[in-house]
Request: fold
Amino acid sequence: MINWTCKKFNELTPHELYAVLQLRNEVFVVEQNCVFQDADNKDAYCCHFMGWKDGILAAYTRLVPPGVSYTEMSIGRVVTAPAARGNGLGRELMDQSIKRCYNLFGNGPIKIGAQLYLEKFYGSLGFVQSSDMYMEDGIPHIEMVLS
Reply:
């Protein structure tokens, strides 16, 4: 059973912030072997959507208000802990994140910068490619929009 919580940056406890940064680094830096600046000055403007299982952060997204990353609202830093994969948690994370975006920011398009290899996954959630492929931190990406 996943316990979903969503907090503004200044509401995060030190334990929660550490868990978020640890999971993002575990996957985006170590697992994907990608050296990049994760602290990009956007976290303070965002809501942090966390899925906890038995006190451990199993899934996370950063819910970005319109005007921070794109004109549209956005979902970023989508990550599932390696130990929690293979049971549909990634799909549940995105379904819950989409609903939470609408609750926080109102109805409207959601734009994401997706790693290219995840195009079919995001497409299955209703996202449609809206840009050519581009490189970000050495990884092929595309922009996608959920209208």
Q: What stands out?
A: The helical segments are 14-31, 89-105, 119-124. The chain has one domain: 3-146. The chain has a mean pLDDT of 93. The radius of gyration is 14 Å.
